[in-house]
Amino acid sequence: MKILPSVLILLLGCVPVFSSQNVSLRELAEKLNIYIGFAAINNFWSLSDAEKYMEVARREFNILTPENQMKWDTIHPERDRYNFTPAEKHVEFAEENDMIVHGHTLVWHNQLPGWITGREWTKEELLNVLEDHIKTVVSHFKGRVKIWDVVNEAVSDSGTYRESVWYKTIGPEYIEKAFRWAKEADPDAILIYNDYSIEEINAKSNFVYNMIKELKEKGVPVDGIGFQMHIDYRGLNYDSFRRNLERFAKLGLQIYITEMDVRIPLSGSEEYYLKKQAEVCAKIFDICLDNPAVKAIQFWGFTDKYSWVPGFFKGYGKALLFDENYNPKPCYYAIKEVLEKKIEERK
Ligand code: 9MR
């Protein structure tokens, strides 16, 4: 008899833990009519822990972006040869698991094959190459890739056109043409401009705002804006972020958070930084979910085991929702709490 109350307390104590572990992020996101997603690592189907990776991915997410394998160097390795095999694997995994696919990316200055970067082009030649690439790739995945990052990172950090091979050879009209060609190839796809460090109101986001405004006024089919959201545990200026979302939404654009990660220092108090990271994630979700133009929040990976961050930002890492052993982190639970709160609010 004596143990009964303590058993009861123990059981009651477990209830919230059980219920919140049973509900996945995607189930909650679906109740709010949004997508929650991840960038899928190269050849994830042949990782040593592929089963675990895929189990978490299919459980938690309903939108997938191939992290690298739809980029030029993989998908178009020679002028007359396309290689759709790895990209197909990403799309098949998504289809098998009732996820949509966010294609990344049709025009970028990075990860270009040597046959593009290794010679000079005339404007006419490069226009032909770009048209062929966009139309071939978009038609190949017509109806299967729902969203395309048509143009990626075309603006410099100071707010000018980036001096890429596309800009220098073709001029700014490569952007307009890219959107028009993608639209011709798949009129139903959602076409996005995607960039980093444009989350707040600043010189770069002002430039992007004016650029898209002008494109829309000309009738160029830009449907959405992608805020990449590669940030650190100190977060953002949230008021500026909220106002920025509002002004882009007023242009009639859908909003996508496309590549979120929140890096923390790898030395110092991990407990402190993970708590800060969780607060930042919660705040961003809170603001995004208050704006009906936001259609998806996508992370740039999901386990800290596979993330571009430590390789790029020295001394930083652990930027994602799950640790190296696929255990959910405080930021995962913080996001869940926000999703649950929003579901309650909308009842
Ligand atoms: O995560 C990607 C990494 O594996 C590649 O080595 C890198 C090469 O440039 O690109 C990373 O992804 C980038 C994305 O395509 C565009 N926005 C910034 C991302 C992080 O660099």
From TrEMBL:
Keywords: Carbohydrate metabolism, Glycosidase, Hydrolase, Polysaccharide degradation, Signal, Xylan degradation
Pfam annotation, one family: Glyco_hydro_10
One term of GO molecular function: endo-1,4-beta-xylanase activity
EC number: 3.2.1.8
Protein name: Beta-xylanase
InterPro entries registered for this protein in UniProt: GH (IPR017853), GH10 (IPR044846), GH10_dom (IPR001000)
GH10 domain boundaries: 19-338
GO biological process: xylan catabolic process
EC category: hydrolase
Family: Belongs to the glycosyl hydrolase 10 (cellulase F) family.
Record field: catalytic activity: Endohydrolysis of (1->4)-beta-D-xylosidic linkages in xylans
